[in-house]
């Protein structure tokens, strides 16, 4: 990304993340983000976000849930950080202006993050001055849906995963809850900031276009997995502006990693909702 940027060929603003996989990395993580940004950062390229892998996934029974997995009694998964550690992490990141994205699949891990942010509001006397997003949100406590807006936390869904709702493996793990996974509508109706993101874990997915934001947009719009047609063969409806929903999805799905150059109101910290940093319109009117 730095190469086209230095050559003056980066046509958008790009916010890169540093990924924290294990707790011991935390000691050097903030310094590493800053070092990367010093080395590669520019007015278009920013390494200004930390992503933490807070939990595993339901398929491996490692997402942190309130209830035990049905087929592994005594196991309800676990989180990388405690609520207190998350609170302190957000304070440290706030001091450095580094944004936070949290991979959170289980209802308990998401509850922990929201509790930590709530405590940060009290510690700081207001919302943390950074962007905080919780990603994937497969299982969310009924009462937690309505905390995202109040706490200013971005609800980030992964449309490419929506095709897995009711998957037999997940059903064996969480039973009927499998039918109400990944519900975006309560947050959309509550006017919280909801984003749609791509998600890839293997190099092979770079090639089969799962990383293409259009892939998630297509699923978000049609509500079914993309099958058979390579993404590059699909008409670029989002760019044509032919539908407001598609266009807003295009905006939302890319907002945390890139931004068309020239878009006013987004500074290097990517802070939203502050004077001079207007938020784009949230996705409205359709549910997943
Ligand atoms: Zn993730």
Question: Can you put this structure into words, describing what you see?
Answer:
The chain has 288 residues and is of the alpha/beta class. It has one domain: Metal-dependent hydrolases (TIM Barrel, Alpha-Beta Barrel), CATH 3.20.20.140. The protein has helices at residues 2-6, 26-40, 83-96, 107-124, 147-151, 159-162, 168-174, 185-189, 203-207, 213-222, 237-240, 244-254; strands at residues 12-20, 45-53, 99-104, 132-136, 154-157, 194-196, 258-260. It has a 7-stranded mixed beta sheet. Helix 3 crosses helix 4 (107-124). It is globular, with a radius of gyration of 19 Å. Bound molecules: zinc ion. The site of zinc ion has 4 residues, from strand 4.
Identify the CATH homologous superfamily.
Metal-dependent hydrolases
What's the total number of strands? 7
Tally of alpha and pi helices? 12
User: Helix/strand/pairing class, anyone?
Assistant: alpha/beta
Instruction: Please indicate the percent range of residues in DSSP E strands (runs of 2 or more).
Output: 5-15%
**What is the overall pLDDT average?**
79
Count of the domains:
1
Percent range of helical residues? 25-40%
Ions, cofactors, ligands: which are bound?
Answer: zinc ion
Assigned CATH architecture:
Alpha-Beta Barrel
SSE order, one letter for each helix or strand: HEHEHEHEHEHHHEHHHHE
